[in-house]
Amino acid sequence: MEFFEDYFESHPAEQLQRAVHETSGQPYFVTGDALIDKWEREIAEGREPDLDEALTPNQREAEEARLERLRAAAGELDGFAGIEERLDG
Questions:
Q1: Residue 35: which of 54, 18, 22 has the closest Cα?
Q2: 46-72: per-residue pLDDT in tens?
Q3: Do 49 and 59 belong to one domain?
Q4: Which of 43, 47, 23, 46 shows the shortest CA–CA distance to 31?
Q5: Cβ(9)–Cβ(15) below 8 Å
Q6: For the whole model, what pTM was predicted?
Q7: DSSP letter, residue 55
Q8: Helical spans, DSSP H, in 11-56
Q9: What phi and psi values does residue 11 have, to the nearest 5 degrees?
């Protein structure tokens, strides 16, 4: 942590700029990246940003498929998965 304190103290131009949202009064960071700055403003407004909005349709499909595989694997590890069928059977 001290490294970053020392670094930014000697390189102030590289620090993230802070702003205050005009209606909510919540602080947020300004990074210079349009999408990240949009997400920062949305968070300051109390909204949940759509972190998938930067994905292409193909990337979105691949991510959905990956999440389905993870959910299926987690279900297999869950000792309660399918318990209703086992209790009814």
A1: 54
A2: 999 999 998 999 999 999 999 888 888
A3: no
A4: 43
A5: no
A6: 0.55
A7: S
A8: 34-44
A9: -130, 65
